[in-house]
C-alpha cells in the first residue's frame, strides 16, 4: 500500500485510518510523500522547502501520521519562512502559532512549505525568488494564486491536503483552477495563524485545500476557535433541507463570465435545482465598484508598507528596491502617496459595499456565482514585473466574485463541479452569512455525492503518471 499511486489516491482521513489500523506507519506515509515530491516537484515547483526529518513521531489525533504542506506565507518552526519574497529568503521561523499547534496536535506531519505569491498579493504563483509554479492540468497555465503551491501539490497527489489562506480569493481561486475543494471559513472562526496586524491580514482566513469535503470539515473542526460563538465541530453529513439560493453572474467590476465559465455555471444551476433547491436570479449588490477595487489595493499596499517599515526599524540598511518585486513596491508607493486618510477612506468604502451585499442577499441561505469569470490564464499574464495599473486591470477582469466575501467576513467555497474534456477545471462558488460555515459544508457534501470529483486527476499527477 506504500507505492506512489495507491497512497496518493487516498484523502487525509483515509490515510489516518490506515495509520490507526497499523496497516501503514507514519514514517511510511512520510517516505511515500517524499518520494512523490521527488518525482514531480522538479516539474511543478509546488513545494519550496522540504522537511525530510521529523523531530518526533506523529502525535495521536484525527489526522495522525498524515503529511501535509504549510503555505510559505505562514510560519512553521524550524522551516524557512520567505513569504515568497527575496527580502526574507534567509528567514527561518522559530515560534509556533496557535493555529500551527492545533494542526500538530491533530497528528498532521508538516512535509514542507508550499509556494506562494510574494506576501500573497497576486493571483498567480510566480515569484522572482522561487520561479513559476505550473498547473498540473496544463503546464503552460498558471495555478493562479496566491495559494498556487498548495493547490498544485494536492492536485498532483503529492499530499492529500495542504494549508492555504485567503485574503481575496487566494485559496478558492487556485482550488478552482486545479479541480479541488477550497473552503474559506468565516472571519474569526479559527484560532490565530499569525497573519494579523494589518487590515489585509484581518481579512485573511486560514484553512486548507483538499480533494475531499470531509478532510476540509475535519481540518476546520481542529482549528476553530471554540471560545467564539457556537463551534461548528466536525460536520459529517450532507445537507438535509432545501435552500433558497441567490445568484448573479455580473461581477462587481461589471464583467460577465466567458462562455466556458457560463456553461459550468448553468450546469451548476441545473444541478442545484435537481437537488431540490430554489435558485433565484437577482441583481448584484449596487456599490461603487472602482472605488472598492482601489480600496482593496490600498489595503494591500498598507500591508506591504508596514512590512518595509518593520524591517527598516530592525536593521541598519533600509529595504532595497531589488529585495521586493516591482508590484509590491508599486502597491506600497501608491498607498504612501495617498496620505494619512487612505485607510479610513478604504474602510468606509468596504463598509458601504458590505451593506449593499447584505441588503441584496437578505432572506437567502446561500449566494451562487462562478469562482472566476475566465478560465485560468497562462503563466506570465499576472507576472509581478508588470505595472500596477496593468495588473489591476487584468486582475479585475478575472477576479470579481471572491474578494467581497473576505471584506464581509463570510464563509465561502469553490466546488469542483466542471471538468471540460479539453481544458482546465472550472469551480463554482458559494457563500453564506458569517457563521454559517456548517451550512456550506453540508451543501458541499451534497454536491460531492451528486457530482463526485475524487477520481478526477490532472495529467501531471502521481495517479495519472504512475
TrEMBL record:
Residues 28-441 form the Amidase domain. This is Amidase. Pfam families: Amidase (PF01425). Belongs to the amidase family. One of its GO terms (molecular function) is catalytic activity. It comes from the Bacteria.
